[in-house]
User: Which sequence fits this backbone?
């Protein structure tokens, strides 16, 4: 962007600032309109800076006008030549050399041209005047297992050298998949994105309970071990009756929900009693893709399923035989797809489904595949 001329009215009230953009793209209507809008928004700040830097007691109001004269020149030399020609024409109209003191309007015009040109070509001052970051946008990141959502945000901050970075919806360290990260002005969109529904793929293990309702927690005492497990058909019927549509859900105490200004998981780790209230959520889809039966270790969560058997018919249940080892127990696993409203905890779904079946349950795998239209 280049200032080609500044014309000040005789009463010094208005300064018309003529500007242009070099290059053919600078003369496109859309680009010209965006530049004009930015100049108008910065008008007050520019006027203040011009008055301060040029030492003017009376600073004219600024009016920005696109200069059509340079039109197809596209070169700074042409613009300067036009400006010099105009100065020469003005010089012929002034008094003879003996009395050619610089008129105040000419002095103001030159000082303002210099000051405005300097400021308009300074990136730092443009940034200060428009208050816009250099970059803005959204990233759809496939979060790996074992890192927190905050870790991902910190990595983006470091890569972009920006502080203004956030995400739309926390994923637990164990979970993988879609994490929408915004930076710059796009962070304003995150509050809208986080309120949209989401889709997950998960594996629910029935027959064991954990402190966190997922494989990251410690196994809880199960009492008498189950040996009779329901059929896939029976589980799907229960899901349809109790876990679809609008339901009430109590989040696990090891969650990021704040209680009196503190995260629930911090209070739980300190050994304090945490009581979270039930909240309404909507389950749009809760489909069982596969059901299988087998054995897993009884002393730690998250171990692989041994001797896995997939029922040939959906209506067939499973009666477990003697476990292959003393430290193993029978369990049932479900691969599911869940589409739900914001604020839904999939591990709480696993826990509650297990409780309804009288088996206990927790998540062993969670992957988010969609947030609104991002996947």
Assistant:
């Amino acid at each position: 962007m280049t200032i080609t001329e500044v014309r000040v009215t005789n009463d010094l009230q208005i300064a018309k600032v003529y500007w242009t953009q070099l290059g053919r793209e600078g003369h496109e209507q859309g680009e010209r309109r965006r530049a004009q809008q930015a100049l108008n928004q910065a008008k007050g700040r520019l006027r203040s800076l011009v008055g301060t830097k040029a030492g003017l007691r009376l600073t004219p109001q600024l009016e920005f006008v696109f200069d059509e004269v340079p039109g197809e020149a596209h070169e700074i030399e042409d613009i300067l030549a036009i400006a010099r020609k105009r100065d020469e024409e003005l010089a012929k109209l002034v008094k003879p050399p003996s009395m050619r003191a610089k008129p105040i309007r000419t002095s103001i015009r030159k000082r303002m041209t210099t000051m405005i040109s300097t400021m308009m070509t300074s990136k730092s001052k443009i940034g200060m005047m428009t208050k816009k970051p250099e970059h803005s946008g959204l990233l759809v990141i496939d979060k790996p297992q074992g890192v927190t959502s905050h870790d991902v945000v910190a990595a983006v901050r470091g890569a972009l050298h920006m502080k203004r970075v956030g995400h739309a919806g926390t994923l637990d360290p164990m979970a993988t998949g879609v994490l929408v990260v915004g930076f710059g002005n796009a962070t304003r969109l995150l509050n809208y994105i986080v309120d949209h529904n989401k889709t997950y793929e998960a594996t629910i293990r029935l027959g064991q309970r954990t402190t966190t309702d997922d494989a990251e927690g410690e196994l809880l005492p199960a009492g008498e071990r189950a040996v009779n497990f329901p059929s896939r058909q029976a589980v799907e019927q229960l899901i349809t009756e109790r876990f679809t549509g609008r339901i009430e859900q109590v989040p696990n105490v090891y969650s990021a929900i704040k209680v009196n200004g503190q995260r629930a998981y911090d209070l739980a780790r300190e050994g304090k009693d945490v009581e979270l209230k039930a909240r309404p959520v909507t389950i749009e889809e809760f489909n069982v893709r596969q059901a299988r039966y087998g054995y897993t270790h009884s002393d730690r969560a998250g171990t692989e399923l041994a001797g896995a058997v997939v029922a040939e018919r959906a209506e067939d249940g499973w009666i477990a035989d003697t476990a292959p080892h003393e430290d193993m127990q029978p369990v049932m696993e479900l691969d599911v797809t869940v589409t739900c409203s914001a604020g839904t905890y999939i591990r709480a779904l696993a826990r509650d489904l297990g409780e309804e079946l009288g088996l206990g349950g927790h998540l062993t795998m969670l992957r988010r595949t969609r947030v609104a239209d991002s996947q």
